[in-house]
Amino acid sequence: MSRALPLGTYVEGAGPLHALDARVKLAVLLMATILAFARPSMLVMAGIVALLACGMALAGVSAATLARAARPCAVILVFVIVANTLRFDGTGDVTLIHGLGLSLLGLGNGAFAVVRVLGLLGLALVVSTTTTTTELADACGWVLSPLGRLGLPTADIAMVLSIALRFIPICVDEFDRVVCAQRARGMDFSEGGLRERLSAWGGVLTPVVVSLFGHADRLAEAMQDRLYAGEGRTSMAEAPKAADWVVLACGAVAFVAALVWG
Q1: CA distances (Å), 194 to each of 8, 58, 74, 184, 199, in order?
Q2: Which residue from 123, 144, 141, 137 is spatially nearest to 165, judged by alpha carbons?
Q3: pTM of model > 0.90
Q4: End-to-end C-alpha distance for the chain, whole angstroms
Q5: Residue ranges per structural domain of the chain
Q6: Does the structure show a pLDDT above 90 at 16?
Q7: How many alpha carbons lie under 13 Å from residue 184 in its C-beta half-sphere?
């Protein structure tokens, strides 16, 4: 993959992850998410990082792609590290000035939290890269199906999640297109003070939002023309193959073992 793609972009391929059942991939992602927060140990995080490395290698996802997907939350990740590291009561391991210091334990905790977020983000990126919109919608509906007995519109929720995920690359493409158009008209986003820069970026965000509303309207009209009804919709998802059951069984065994001994 030569170009870093945003989260939610499906890349056609014939690898083992593309052939793996979407329900299995979503189940493994869900189990990894539960473990990351229920058993936040070094052993569990090492397993998640190893799983991410294998998934990225099999899916052809580069480190640049993961970095681009994490860019929107970079400020939050940096804030997590800074907030955990700084100490203002003089209890820091490294003293700077007037009680301000740095906590090595806090730095480790912040870095651990960042690794956890990046690991789960990377796994979600691998799943979205190797799974089509239809497969994701069917898989989400399958995962949420037990809640359907309580009257929850699981099919509609699955479709909304799938559409929201697939709109991410559309948003990125629209943003890049408008920025290129504004720069072609002579707009320089690096000149002027804060007010001038905000005004320049306002000239980008406004057409982007208008364009996205247009995409949403066309999508709603297309779904209405095709008589989308949500619940009761037929599915063309095939039954899981033997390899899918093996992967799911291995994931379930690792999940239980990590919960008990992690």
Answers
A1: 32, 44, 21, 22, 9
A2: 137
A3: no
A4: 35
A5: 1-151+239-262, 154-230
A6: no
A7: 6
